Protein: Cupin domain protein
Organism: Oceaniovalibus guishaninsula JLT2003
Amino acid sequence: MTPQDMSARIVRYGELQPCKTAFIDAHTPGSNQKENFTIIGGGVSESADQHVHITIPHGFNIGAAGQPPRCRNSLHSHRTAEVFYVLKGRWRFFWGRWGDAGEVTLEEGDIINIPTGIFRGFENTGTDYGMIMAVLGGDDAGGGVIWAPQVIEDARDHGLVLGENGKLYDTKKGQSLPEGVKPMPVLTDEELRDFPEPTPAEVVPNFVARYWDMMSLADKAPVQVIGEKGMLRDRPGFEVGLLNHNSATSDMHSHDRPSVLMPMRGHWRVTWENGERGEAILAPGDTMSVPENLRHTAQPSMTGEASLFHVIATDDPAGPTRWTAEKDRR
C-alpha cells in the first residue's frame, strides 16, 4: 500500500471530530459537556450528527470520550465488551443500578474491561479535559446502548426523547417522534433484576490492569492484556496487547485480519511493505488501522517512555465477558 492509501487508515488525535449530541443525556446537567468520537466502525451513537472516521469492519469498534472535569457519562449497559484505557487525566468508573455498587479510579495508561450486563458510568475526576479510548465488541457493538430507566426519564425532562428505533429526537428543536415510532420503553422491574451488581472485589482484580504492571511485563515480550492467556483473562471477540521499548522489534509480520495500533506514550514509527515500502509516525491519541496480510512493524522513534496498544479481532463471538458468562452458568 502506498503512503497515500495508508493515510486514509490513520486518524490523528488532532483531527478527531467530536459529537456533542451523541447520546440521550446530551442535555442532562452534569453530562451535557461530553464529546463522543467514533474512530473505527459504526459505534453506538444515537445521533445522526456523529462522524465516523473509518468505516471498514474490524470485528470491533474503536471510539473515544472526551470530557471536562466533573462531567460524567450516565449509567448504561452493553451486550458486548466495553474496554477503556485512559489517555489523558484521571477517571472514576462506577457501576450498579444506581451507580453505587462499586467504583474504581484509573490513571493514565490504566485499562478496564467492564463486565457486560451491568450498568456502568464514568466521570472525569481530573483537573483538565480528559480523554479515554474505547474498544467495543462486534461490528455492530451489540446493537446499541441499554440505559438505566432514570437516564431516559431525566433526558425527557430536558428535551431529548429516544425512539424505539434507537434514534434521538430533540423537542427543543421542534423535533418529535415520527409517526409509527414509539418512545424507547424503560426497563421493567423484572428486567432490571437481570442486571447484577458485582462488588469491587469481583471487578477490580479481574477486569482492571494498571499501566506500570503492563509496562513491567512488556519489558520481556509484548504482553497480552486482554485475551485467553492475558493479564485479564477474557475472550470478548478481540485481544488487546501492549508493546514498549524493550518488546518492540524490527521483525516484519502480518495478520489475517485488520488490526489497530494506538500509541499511549511516545512516538512510534510504523513501517510496512507491500510491493513498496512506506512508513508513518504515530503519536499518543492517534489510531492506525493496519490492513489484513500487510507486513509491518512498529518501533519507538525516539528515546524515553514509549507504549503502544494493539487490538485485533479473534474468532470468539462478541458477547458476554467472562464474568457474566460464569454467572450465567451458575
User: Anything to note?
Assistant: The radius of gyration is 20 Å. The mean pLDDT is 93. Helices lie at 3-7, 149-157, 189-192, 200-207, 211-217, 322-329. The CA atoms of residues 34 and 152 lie 17 Å apart.
